[in-house]
UniProtKB/TrEMBL annotation:
Origin species: Paraglomus occultum
Identification of the protein by name: 82_t:CDS:1
Taxonomy, superkingdom: Eukaryota
Listed transmembrane segments: 20-48, 54-74
InterPro entries: YneE/VCCN1/2-like
Record bears the keyword Cell membrane: yes
One Pfam entry name: Bestrophin_2
Lineage per the UniProt record: Eukaryota, Fungi, Fungi incertae sedis, Mucoromycota, Glomeromycotina
Keywords: Cell membrane, Ion transport, Membrane, Transmembrane, Transmembrane helix, Transport
Membrane topology: Multi-pass membrane protein
Length: 330
């Protein structure tokens, strides 16, 4: 007990305090408004010291602080709920992909011929491609020509996509709009997963009960895709964002006239600290309301996808199949 406490005590002094971290913080984003309001406060104090600036009663500070604080708190909570929901969705998606791959691989591979093994491998690659496709889809990166996608899509499907792209180019050259355009790659991959499962069932390679289970997993992944899109396409109402920013500005503008009588020149750092606090929380909310991008505080989506890629590779190694152990020992 004492040794663990000593280790924790020593480690606490080795680590840099969080308030000294700048990487991952929103300090660079709020530096400009903080400087602006600090300069504004200094100018106001200068004129107030000459008796040339209007002063307000300090009783307004608590009222404005409560109202502005509630709005900022609502903004932060709404954004964090979206961030946390995105994390839960990725966890559920990972569980479904793991279950789908495990059930399919160990239910078919034992009695499958060479062609079916290739088809199962295509499905395993499609499961990984589905995760990568969602990542690009949520980041607004359309198409399939990415290093983490191209090698995991079946050749036949790539030919279909290329043929579709050529038809679009022909229509655009003729000045016609392509009304059948369809760029939701994750949804198309889900369709491929279902069609592969149906094909295995029709060929007698997949038990009907297992097929129903895989169909349920496909349906669950479809719901998760829709939930991802809901987070992406339903931002916080713009009117709320405008009003919040206006309230923060008005609050910071009203501080020097209210605080000068009691604090004098100290209202300059007080105003700067208030601006840093409220603009900082607002900046954090803006950064995490879409948790799938490239910001420092967004979800590590690339890591989630790469972890899935590594995990699914274990199935193909046959290290976890008891039948392979018996073959080696016989």
């Amino acid at each position: 007990m004492s040794s663990s406490f000593t280790f924790y005590f020593r480690d606490a002094f080795k680590r840099r305090p969080l308030f000294l971290y700048f990487r991952g913080s929103v300090f660079p984003r709020v530096l400009v408004p903080v400087v602006i309001f600090a300069v504004y406060s200094a100018v106001f104090v200068f004129f107030a010291s000459l008796g040339l600036a209007p002063l307000l009663h300090v009783s307004l500070v608590p009222i404005l602080t409560i109202v502005t604080g509630l709005l900022v708190s609502l903004r932060a909570n709404s954004s964090y709920d979206r961030w946390w929901e995105g994390r839960k969705l990725w966890s559920s998606l990972t569980a479904n992909i793991r279950s789908f791959s495990r059930v399919l691989w160990y239910s078919i591979e034992r009695e499958a011929d060479g062609d079916d093994v290739d088809d199962v491998t295509d499905v395993m690659n499609l499961l990984v491609a589905f995760a990568f496709a969602i990542k690009h889809h949520l980041r607004g990166e359309d198409g399939y020509q990415y290093s983490d996608l191209t090698d995991r899509l079946p050749r036949g499907y790539l030919a279909v996509i290329e043929n579709r792209r050529n038809k679009r180019v022909d229509k655009e050259r003729r000045g016609r709009r392509d009304t059948n355009r369809f760029d939701n790659l994750p949804l198309e991959i889900l369709t491929l997963l279902f069609n592969y499962s149906s094909m295995f069932k029709q060929h007698g390679k997949l038990d009907p009960g297992i097929f129903n289970h895989l169909s349920a997993l496909t349906h669950s992944m479809t719901e998760q895709l829709s939930s991802f899109e809901r987070i992406l396409t339903a931002p916080i109402p713009f009117a709320f964002m405008i009003h919040l920013r206006q309230m923060i500005v008005l609050y910071c503008v009203s501080l020097p006239p209210q605080l000068y009588t009691q604090t004098g020149w100290y209202c300059i750092p007080i105003t700067a600290i208030a601006a840093f606090t409220f603009f900082g929380v607002d900046a954090i909310g803006k950064e995490i309301e879409n948790p799938f991008g490239y910001d420092a505080n967004d979800l590590p989506v690339d890591k989630f996808c790469n972890d899935l890629l590594s995990e699914l590779g274990v199935f193909e190694s046959k290290e976890l199949n008891p039948q392979e152990w018996k073959k080696k020992n016989s």
